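tokens incoming
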């Protein structure tokens, strides 16, 4: 099941739990489409809590969603508690055009900040998020 928790302009926070179905991807699609009238892309944080995978039709919907709507998701913060979700983040980034980072559940707030980071001139990579400051000219 996917629940839309927060929508702020082109930023969407969703929570995934139980098993995902085609209806869940329909909800994501219906949440994203209206934002595309104002912006060409959206940024999404999805938190996996008590997640148990996909139904068989849900797998097909996930693939279809990735091939179509995946192109309009500019950045995706995957927040989870298991290696499964971390692996999912890697697969989405390798096979898609979305910039993806994985965060543990205890770093959910950092994930939301990361989605906004390059909007305020900070670094895009989570690896350097909060640890490296931009160098000054002349250094």
């Amino acid at each position: 099941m996917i629940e839309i928790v927060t929508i702020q302009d082109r930023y969407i926070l969703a929570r995934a739990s139980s098993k995902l179905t085609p209806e869940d991807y329909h909800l994501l699609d219906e949440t994203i489409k209206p934002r595309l009238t104002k912006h060409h892309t959206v940024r999404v944080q999805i938190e996996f809590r008590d997640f148990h995978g996909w139904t068989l039709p849900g797998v097909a919907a996930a693939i279809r969603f990735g091939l179509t709507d995946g192109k309009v998701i500019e950045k995706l913060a995957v927040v989870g508690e298991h290696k499964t979700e971390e692996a999912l983040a890697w697969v989405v980034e390798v096979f898609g055009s979305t910039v993806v980072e994985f965060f543990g559940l205890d770093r959910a707030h950092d994930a939301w900040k990361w989605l906004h980071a390059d909007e305020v001139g900070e670094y895009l990579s989570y690896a350097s998020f909060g640890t490296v400051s931009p160098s000054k000219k002349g250094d």
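note: Residues 121-139 have pLDDT under 50 and may be disordered.
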